[in-house]
Design a protein that fits this description.
- The chain is mostly helical.
- The chain has one domain: MetI-like fold.
- The chain is elongated and about 70 Å long.
Length: 220
Amino acid sequence: MNMTWEINWAEIAKATGDTLVMLGWSLLFTVIIGLALGIILFLTSRGQLLQNNAFYGVLSLIVNILRSVPFVILMISVFPITKALVHTTIGVKGSIPPLVIAAAPFLARLVESALREIESGVIEAAQSMGATPWQIVWRVLLPEARPGLIAAVTVTAVTLLSYSAMSGVVGGGGLGDLALRYGYMRFRTDIMIVTVVTLVILVQVLQSAGDRLVARYNKK
């Protein structure tokens, strides 16, 4: 093993920056799509405002299938979609679509669970006052479920970070790619250690920020 510790910190910084870019863009699109999916799943489930068992069953099945596929396999499977969207399947740009496709269903389930924690009486009170389903979503469901939703986004962000590292297997760029090309293939234990420590620090920062926000908005 090469333990010279002659680390190119510029490469580490660039890889960290690429990882943060992947995380930022993929988290943004994941929140938009996952939040929408989660709300739809909740509203169309049994006993809710827009109950539709057939629609819920189909959407729930699609979400479950996407959640069940290992990320590396999913990333390879959606190469045609990735190519059509961003015109490449490698690098930072090529990693974002599969990251979103993998994480959005995961977040959708967390959002659905968070919304189910809201007491039914709150929704019924809003209905009795003539609120539309859209008004109930924006003025009741989302504000009431805010701590749970923040926690869900935090968990999803950490998951995306681990997915972004795995994307290095197919040339996704970032810390995962650096760890694979330099740490694993060139037997550079020092590079492996630095990338792992960097990822651990990023996870701690994300989790701490999420926990602080949850504590701030938690009414209990």
